[in-house]
Amino acid sequence: MPGADKETDLTERIEAFLADLKRGGSGTGPLRGSGEMARETTYLLRRITAQARWSSAGDLMEIIRNEGRRMTAAQPSETTVGNMVRRVLKIIREEYARSRGSSEETEQQESLHKLLTAGELSEENFRQHFVHLKANVIEAINELLTELDGTTDNIAMQALEHIHSNEVIMTVGRSRTVEAFLKDAARKRKFHVIVAECAPFCQGHEMATGLSKVGIETTVIADAAIFAVMSRVNKVIIGTQTVLANGGLRAVNGTHSVALAARHHSTPLIICAPMFKLSPQVFTTIFYPFPGSFSYCLPVLREILSKVNVHCPVFDYVPPELITLFISNIGGNAPSYIYRLMSELYHPEDHKL
Amino acid sequence: QEEKRLVEYFRTQVRQDPEVPSAVAAIRTLLEFLKRDQSETILGLRENLTQTIRRLEEADSSVAVSSGGELFLRFISLTSLEHPDLSQCKKVMVERGELFLKKISLSRSKVAKLCHTFIKDGAKILTHSSSRVVLKVLESAAADKKRFTVYVTESQPDSAGRQMADKLQNLNIPVTVVLDAAVGYIMEKVDLVIVGAEGVVESGGIINKIGTYQLAVCSKAHNKPFYVVAESFKFVRLYPLNQQDVPERFKYKADTLKAVEDLAEEHPMIDYTPPSLITLIFTDLGVLTPSAVSDELIKLYL
């Protein structure tokens, strides 16, 4: 029966995705990079919208919320999965409101204004059925996918405004976004790049190879030399894993030290981060380490290995006061403005899936 | 004497339920006034309302009453724009007023729900003077089976900190009272600072019991997070740039303002903490950075 086949096909795909997520945590899975993760999640959510059985927006939101919860539980350190789920939930709310004919602005956020003027304690339960809701939601998700495809290009387009000739730029480790950013500027400007290698995985080496292939003068330095070299640097441009709700960052280990060194020398710190990395979480003290790779990163003598506790945190928190500018696919913004961008992307009820 | 009766009503409200925030008591009184008022026009209504608010401010000079009054005035203006006919307008206003009161009575619990996740197991918290919102936050954290210790500043001249300590002891939370002067001494032991606010100003700063500014400067110097918990009806349209900019009528108790000639001899009861020292503000509208506060105010007043 075609109906049952579709359902099993859907569940199979969801299980396959969850398995990929779990493996992806150790850096060896097929999904590399948050951009791909975001795209895969959105494809899957579109498939769920198209194939799962639902009759009203409320049902669809429940299904997506449940799947979202399972996906974030599979790999808690990948926040882009949760972000995409929240984006899709907001899309569903907007399309529902549009179908009902009410203007989207008034229904959205809690505000003092809304407290004063609301008529009744409106319990929006999304139970009404609309014929074209499915098509509208799928179209909106397609728009989201086009936006995701264009993020790196949109960010790279802004490179010429920020990088000038004969500047010395510092970057840390490897970020696909920053690589595209620098490559785009290199087409018209000549500048130097200093790459911190970012032990223990030393992804800075790959970054340096990539940049020098395009003809950019690149220097690789050890992490310990960051402060020493900082006085010669004009700008620090880095990527990040997540942008938190208060404007802070969750970035690769060592970024906080770079930020402090930059603050000490009054060097601007610019973050290139696409919008799908913006997460409604606020700083908590729990960051997830990579499992399993400890024995590779630190060459500890085998004899004392059992007597030594090796901690290898993967992520760092950078507070918003140390950051100068966020460059995203929608333009440049100050860290104090992040809360506003977040209120446009996600609905406050979806902050906790 | 109608006004005297309303001031009495306000005082009874506060006496009957000491947990109720003074802004809510003020709004309840103003709603009562609305029901009893006899004016024929909306302009007359507004004038009488402004008079009543002034009387209430003379009875209790805190920032919260002032912000509650301004909110109510704004509420009237917004409603009267939609319904120009007075009698229908009044009906809608009374309805919405009751609804508003119902919503804001839940705001303290909303704030507590947001904030208690920031208190980790084993945390040492420093707080200032006695704030019912902070009490509620600590109550929900304790109910969540978290273990933490609290330091409370004594907060002279009224020793409000000791009352806070008693209330916390009743909740079985280990608490220590410290001198106001010992804030710098204790700051290195502390993990985070949580204070309430009497008013949240447009810049994102707060107006709170005297000693809060000191606490904020100290916590900034030691790099400790400084959290403020406040309900949204405490947002007030002031923009002080320094301590002197805070209006005199908030700085001193109502009786002092009436009795004393030369205010320069009196000790102020509140101070202003600028937004640069505040990490996050927890309100019933969500977790806000100080820069988000003016956004909320603009949405309402403009």
UniProtKB/TrEMBL annotation, chain A:
<dbReference type="GO" id="GO:0005829">
    <property type="term" value="C:cytosol"/>
</dbReference>
<dbReference type="Pfam" id="PF01008">
    <property type="entry name" value="IF-2B"/>
</dbReference>
<keyword id="KW-0648">Protein biosynthesis</keyword>
<dbReference type="InterPro" id="IPR000649">
    <property type="entry name" value="IF-2B-related"/>
</dbReference>
<keyword id="KW-0396">Initiation factor</keyword>
<comment type="subunit">
    <text>Component of the translation initiation factor 2B (eIF2B) complex which is a heterodecamer of two sets of five different subunits: alpha, beta, gamma, delta and epsilon. Subunits alpha, beta and delta comprise a regulatory subcomplex and subunits epsilon and gamma comprise a catalytic subcomplex. Within the complex, the hexameric regulatory complex resides at the center, with the two heterodimeric catalytic subcomplexes bound on opposite sides.</text>
</comment>
<comment type="similarity">
    <text>Belongs to the eIF-2B alpha/beta/delta subunits family.</text>
</comment>
<dbReference type="GO" id="GO:0007417">
    <property type="term" value="P:central nervous system development"/>
</dbReference>
<dbReference type="InterPro" id="IPR037171">
    <property type="entry name" value="NagB/RpiA_transferase-like"/>
</dbReference>
<dbReference type="GO" id="GO:0003743">
    <property type="term" value="F:translation initiation factor activity"/>
</dbReference>
<dbReference type="GO" id="GO:0048513">
    <property type="term" value="P:animal organ development"/>
</dbReference>
<dbReference type="InterPro" id="IPR051855">
    <property type="entry name" value="eIF2B_beta_subunit"/>
</dbReference>
<comment type="function">
    <text>Acts as a component of the translation initiation factor 2B (eIF2B) complex, which catalyzes the exchange of GDP for GTP on eukaryotic initiation factor 2 (eIF2) gamma subunit. Its guanine nucleotide exchange factor activity is repressed when bound to eIF2 complex phosphorylated on the alpha subunit, thereby limiting the amount of methionyl-initiator methionine tRNA available to the ribosome and consequently global translation is repressed.</text>
</comment>
<protein>
    <recommendedName>
        <fullName>Translation initiation factor eIF2B subunit beta</fullName>
    </recommendedName>
</protein>
<keyword id="KW-0963">Cytoplasm</keyword>
<dbReference type="GO" id="GO:0005851">
    <property type="term" value="C:eukaryotic translation initiation factor 2B complex"/>
</dbReference>
<dbReference type="GO" id="GO:0005085">
    <property type="term" value="F:guanyl-nucleotide exchange factor activity"/>
</dbReference>
<dbReference type="InterPro" id="IPR042529">
    <property type="entry name" value="IF_2B-like_C"/>
</dbReference>
TrEMBL record, chain B:
<dbReference type="Pfam" id="PF01008">
    <property type="entry name" value="IF-2B"/>
</dbReference>
<dbReference type="InterPro" id="IPR042528">
    <property type="entry name" value="elF-2B_alpha_N"/>
</dbReference>
<dbReference type="InterPro" id="IPR042529">
    <property type="entry name" value="IF_2B-like_C"/>
</dbReference>
<dbReference type="GO" id="GO:0005829">
    <property type="term" value="C:cytosol"/>
</dbReference>
<protein>
    <recommendedName>
        <fullName>Translation initiation factor eIF2B subunit alpha</fullName>
    </recommendedName>
</protein>
<keyword id="KW-0648">Protein biosynthesis</keyword>
<dbReference type="InterPro" id="IPR037171">
    <property type="entry name" value="NagB/RpiA_transferase-like"/>
</dbReference>
<comment type="similarity">
    <text>Belongs to the eIF-2B alpha/beta/delta subunits family.</text>
</comment>
<dbReference type="GO" id="GO:0005085">
    <property type="term" value="F:guanyl-nucleotide exchange factor activity"/>
</dbReference>
<keyword id="KW-0963">Cytoplasm</keyword>
<dbReference type="GO" id="GO:0003743">
    <property type="term" value="F:translation initiation factor activity"/>
</dbReference>
<dbReference type="InterPro" id="IPR051501">
    <property type="entry name" value="eIF2B_alpha/beta/delta"/>
</dbReference>
<comment type="subunit">
    <text>Component of the translation initiation factor 2B (eIF2B) complex which is a heterodecamer of two sets of five different subunits: alpha, beta, gamma, delta and epsilon. Subunits alpha, beta and delta comprise a regulatory subcomplex and subunits epsilon and gamma comprise a catalytic subcomplex. Within the complex, the hexameric regulatory complex resides at the center, with the two heterodimeric catalytic subcomplexes bound on opposite sides.</text>
</comment>
<comment type="function">
    <text>Acts as a component of the translation initiation factor 2B (eIF2B) complex, which catalyzes the exchange of GDP for GTP on eukaryotic initiation factor 2 (eIF2) gamma subunit. Its guanine nucleotide exchange factor activity is repressed when bound to eIF2 complex phosphorylated on the alpha subunit, thereby limiting the amount of methionyl-initiator methionine tRNA available to the ribosome and consequently global translation is repressed.</text>
</comment>
<dbReference type="InterPro" id="IPR000649">
    <property type="entry name" value="IF-2B-related"/>
</dbReference>
<dbReference type="GO" id="GO:0005851">
    <property type="term" value="C:eukaryotic translation initiation factor 2B complex"/>
</dbReference>
<keyword id="KW-0396">Initiation factor</keyword>
